[in-house]
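Figure 6 in text form: structure in, sequence out.
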């Protein structure tokens, strides 16, 4: 029995691999010489998908179907053989007999390789072993694969290859598709939820003349015609708030943001986020939207508000727990910043607790540092952390009862920040002072501080109504909904450092 084993790639030396690849090119040349160039095929009238046939076999048995997909296994014995064909939805077996497709066609069929894309027309039936299959009347080669598919990926080096060659990953590990199907379901649910509540989806610039809307390091480029530096957006916040000034009451935008920062299991230089703004609302309205929206996404995409992430059950069912940042710091560090009122006192307790002191650090920044050190790791179940210090919230409205704090929250789950929201600062005089403070931080070496945006200040002077704003990190939510341990598993094409062919070969030989 001939058995084209897909494990061959891992077992061949570089020289042997080159020979096998040359054999595939020779097969293509022979087909072209016969006038059967597969790359001239323009279309194929497929009538069914694999799972459709399997799920509806009782109704379809005996009917003729045309399927198309990639050969994933091939087992030949004499005048007949079986092949497994993989399409978008799954796999189905085809039974190919010499006496049904003809001697010449069968001889050509025997030369087909794992990875070739074919169309099969034939009768739907079950084998003696009970497997739903297609009894081929005609086999058409639609694309000749000139590469060898690995059987599976394992180990660190192969994991990297999966991300670099996602197209191969999707072929060899079709279960990978499930995460992206879940992602699409969740995003559709998100849009539907907002659309049904009167939010308008809009588009704002990705190329900005000012890096604003968040504290982050931007990617810088240059516009040749205008002779000015430009920045890939780190947030779309300031443009969306301009639209609220202009008279739209509810807007949202979901798309790519770009931050020129570190990469790890939760961070990719380009990532998907959504920001939404609602006039005449505040941060408490944004809390309600956040918990209900994410719970809705989870239920639609997974069937439940409860998800299991790496062995931990997380329940997104509202209402979520609420704590102020100062309450959280007190609970997990024992330090009560309601009793600490000066920058000097805050810095002294920070030194005592081993918190790193940076130039120009003030009480509010010390509170934030305490929260990051002692609080975040305890926030496993969905939790709103509210009332952030003004010093770390340059676009948030001050809290009326304690102007040192803001009406802001961050939403956490699995110890990760998932969302950030606040009652928007609509006082142009206060906002200018916040921007000036950001410039002071930049002079002290903070390359993530915001720039001054004079046009945004002008928009605030025209008048921004009381407004609630919310931003959600889509990729982190998707990691939780798909039980993915790294952000790379929910990005079809994550950012990767390029490697040249020589390095790639050396990596495979190791």
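Output sequence:
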């Amino acid at each position: 029995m001939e058995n084209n084993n897909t494990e061959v790639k891992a077992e061949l030396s570089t020289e042997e691999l080159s020979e096998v690849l040359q054999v595939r090119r020779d097969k293509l040349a022979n087909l072209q010489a016969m006038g059967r160039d597969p790359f001239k095929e323009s279309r194929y009238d497929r009538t069914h998908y694999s799972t459709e046939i399997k799920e509806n076999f009782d109704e379809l048995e005996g009917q003729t179907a045309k399927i198309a997909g990639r050969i994933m296994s091939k087992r030949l014995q004499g005048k007949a053989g079986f092949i497994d064909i993989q399409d978008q939805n799954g796999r189905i077996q085809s039974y190919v007999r010499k006496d049904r497709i003809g001697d010449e066609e069968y001889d050509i069929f025997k030369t087909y390789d794992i990875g070739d894309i074919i169309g099969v027309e034939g009768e739907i039936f079950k084998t003696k072993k009970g497997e739903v299959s297609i009894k081929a009347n005609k086999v058409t080669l639609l694309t000749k694969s000139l590469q060898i598919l690995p059987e599976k990926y394992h180990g660190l080096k192969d994991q990297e290859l999966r991300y670099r060659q996602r197209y191969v990953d999707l072929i060899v590990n079709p279960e990978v598709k499930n995460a992206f199907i879940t992602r699409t379901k969740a995003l559709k649910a998100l849009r539907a939820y907002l659309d049904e509540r009167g939010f308008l989806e809009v588009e704002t610039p990705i190329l900005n003349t000012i890096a604003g809307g968040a504290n982050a390091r931007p990617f810088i480029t240059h516009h040749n015609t205008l002779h000015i530096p430009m920045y890939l957006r780190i947030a779309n916040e300031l443009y969306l708030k301009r639209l609220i000034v202009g008279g739209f009451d509810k807007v949202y935008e979901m798309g790519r943001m770009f931050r020129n920062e570190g990469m790890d299991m939760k961070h990719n230089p380009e990532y998907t986020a959504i920001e939404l703004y609602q006039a005449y609302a505040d941060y408490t309205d944004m809390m309600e939207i956040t918990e209900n929206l994410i719970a809705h996404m989870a239920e639609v995409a997974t069937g439940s508000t409860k998800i299991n992430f790496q062995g931990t059950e997380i329940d997104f069912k509202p209402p979520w727990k609420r704590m102020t940042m100062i309450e959280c710091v007190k609970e997990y560090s024992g330090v009560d910043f309601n009793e600490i009122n000066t920058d000097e006192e805050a810095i002294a307790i920070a030194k005592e607790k081993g918190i790193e002191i940076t130039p120009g650090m003030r009480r509010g920044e010390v509170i934030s540092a305490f929260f990051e050190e002692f609080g975040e790791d305890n926030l496993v179940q969905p939790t709103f952390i509210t009332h952030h210090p003004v010093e770390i919230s340059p676009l948030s409205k001050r809290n009326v009862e304690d102007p040192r704090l803001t009406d802001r929250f961050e939403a956490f789950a699995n110890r990760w920040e998932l969302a950030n929201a606040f009652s928007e600062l609509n006082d142009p005089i206060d906002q200018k002072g916040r921007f000036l403070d950001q410039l002071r931080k930049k002079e002290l070496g903070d390359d993530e501080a915001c720039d001054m945006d004079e046009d945004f200040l002008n928009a605030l002077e025209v008048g921004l109504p009381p407004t609630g704003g919310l931003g959600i990190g889509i990729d982190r939510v998707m990691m939780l909904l798909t039980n993915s341990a790294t952000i790379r598993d929910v990005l079809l094409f994550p950012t990767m450092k390029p490697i040249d062919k020589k390095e790639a070969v050396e990596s495979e030989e190791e």
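Caption detail: DSSP finds 18 helices and 19 strands in the chain.
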